[in-house]
C-alpha cells in the first residue's frame, strides 16, 4: 500500500514538473548568440526579436555577436552552453553545411542541438547581366549549353550558400558555369553589373537595387514556392529547372538537453512575436520571408538539409575559404 502511494506521488510530481518548469523559465537573462557581425541583416533581425521577446518572457533578452569561421565559433559556443534555455543560437544554413565543407568541426549539427523553430528564409534570386539574351531559366540553360566556357558566375565566397546554389544548378541542369569567388556580395555584384560575370545567385536584399535600376536582369527566386516578398517572380523550378530548390534559412536552436518546457515557452512566445505587423514589415525590409514551424518540423528539416547540401559539396568538390 505504501509503495503504491509513493508511486502515485512520484507520478503526480512528474506530471507537475513540466508546468512548473515552464512557469519558472526564464529565471535569468536569455542570450541570443548571433554568428555574424553587428549591423547585418541577421543581427538586425535578432535585435528586433530580442526587443519583443524581452517583454513577453519577462527577462532581459541579450544579443551576443560571435562571428567567424563560417559561423562555427558561435555554433560551438552554444553547443557547449548550459542546456537550460537561457542560451540560444540564431543559426544559419551553415550550421548543417559546415561539416561537409571543413575538415574539423567541433559540434554535431543534430546531436548537439535542440531545434526550436525555423524562423525565416533569406530570399535569394537568380540574375544575369542584361547582355545575356535570356528571359527565363530554361533560356539560360539553353544559352549556357550553346556557349560553352562563356558563363562565369560569382559567389560571395567558396563554400557559401551562393556558391552551393550555383553548383546545384550546374548539376541539375547539366551545365558547367565557371565559379568566380569574391569576398562578399558587393564586389561580385560590381563585376556582374560590369559584365565580367554573366550569372549570379545572391540575396534579394543586396541585389534588389541593381535589378530595379535595370543593371541586372532577374530570372527567378530559388525557393520551392514563390516568395511572399516577390510574388510575381517565378521559382527556378517553374521557370525551367523542375525540382530545383535552395533556401538559405535562419532559425533558433538551443543546446542539446534543454528542457522541453523551456523550448516550448520560447517557441510559443516567438510564434506570437512573428505575428506582429511591425516585425513582418521589418523582415520584409531585410529581404526575409517569415516561416515559423514546430521544433519537430525544424528538426526534420535540418536533417534533410544536411543530406542535401553534403551531396552538393561532394559532387562539386566545393571547399571553404
Automatic annotation (TrEMBL):
The record's SUPFAM superfamilies line, in alphabetical order, gives: Periplasmic binding protein-like II
**Domain of life of the organism encoding this protein:** Bacteria
| Keywords assigned | Receptor, Signal
Q: Does the keyword Transmembrane helix apply?
A: no
Against CDD domains, the record matches this protein to: PBP2_Bug27
Q: One of this protein's Pfam families, by short name?
A: TctC
* InterPro entries, alphabetized: BUG (IPR005064), Bug_dom1 (IPR042100)
The signal sequence is 1-22
Q: Which family does the similarity line name?
A: Belongs to the UPF0065 (bug) family.
Name-wise, this protein is: Extra-cytoplasmic solute receptor family protein 110
Lineage per the UniProt record: Bacteria, Pseudomonadati, Pseudomonadota, Betaproteobacteria, Burkholderiales
Amino acid at each position: 500500500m505504501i509503495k503504491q502511494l509513493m508511486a502515485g506521488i512520484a507520478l503526480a510530481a512528474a506530471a507537475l514538473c513540466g508546468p512548473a518548469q515552464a512557469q519558472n523559465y526564464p529565471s535569468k537573462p536569455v542570450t541570443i548568440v548571433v554568428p555574424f557581425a553587428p549591423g547585418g541583416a541577421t543581427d538586425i533581425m535578432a535585435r528586433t526579436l530580442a526587443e519583443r521577446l524581452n517583454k513577453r518572457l519577462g527577462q532581459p533578452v541579450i544579443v551576443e555577436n560571435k562571428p567567424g569561421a563560417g559561423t562555427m565559433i558561435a555554433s560551438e559556443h552554444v553547443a557547449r552552453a548550459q542546456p537550460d534555455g537561457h542560451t540560444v543560437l540564431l543559426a544559419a544554413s551553415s550550421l548543417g553545411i559546415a561539416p561537409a565543407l571543413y575538415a574539423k568541426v567541433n559540434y554535431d549539427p543534430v546531436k548537439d542541438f535542440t531545434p526550436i523553430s525555423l524562423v525565416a528564409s533569406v530570399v535569394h534570386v537568380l540574375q544575369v547581366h542584361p547582355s545575356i539574351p535570356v528571359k527565363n531559366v530554361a533560356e539560360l540553360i539553353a544559352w549556357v549549353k550553346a556557349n560553352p566556357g562563356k558563363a562565369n558566375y560569382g559567389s560571395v565566397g567558396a563554400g557559401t550558400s551562393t556558391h552551393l546554389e550555383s553548383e546545384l544548378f550546374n548539376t541539375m541542369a547539366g551545365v558547367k558555369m565557371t565559379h568566380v569567388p569574391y569576398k562578399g556580395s558587393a564586389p561580385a555584384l560590381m563585376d556582374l553589373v560590369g559584365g565580367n560575370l554573366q550569372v549570379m545567385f545572391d540575396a534579394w536584399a543586396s541585389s534588389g537595387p541593381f535589378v530595379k535600376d535595370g543593371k541586372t536582369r532577374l530570372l527567378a527566386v530559388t525557393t520551392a514556392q514563390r516568395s511572399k516578398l516577390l510574388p510575381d517572380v517565378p521559382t527556378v523550378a517553374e521557370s525551367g529547372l523542375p525540382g530545383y530548390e535552395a533556401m538559405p534559412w535562419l532559425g533558433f536552436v538551443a543546446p542539446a538537453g534543454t528542457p522541453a518546457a523551456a523550448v516550448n515557452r520560447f517557441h510559443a512566445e516567438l510564434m506570437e512575436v512573428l505575428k506582429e505587423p511591425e516585425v513582418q514589415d521589418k523582415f520584409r525590409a531585410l529581404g526575409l520571408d517569415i516561416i515559423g514551424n514546430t521544433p519537430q518540423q525544424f528538426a526534420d528539416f535540418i536533417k534533410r538539409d544536411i543530406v542535401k547540401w553534403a551531396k552538393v559539396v561532394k559532387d562539386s568538390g566545393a571547399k571553404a575559404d
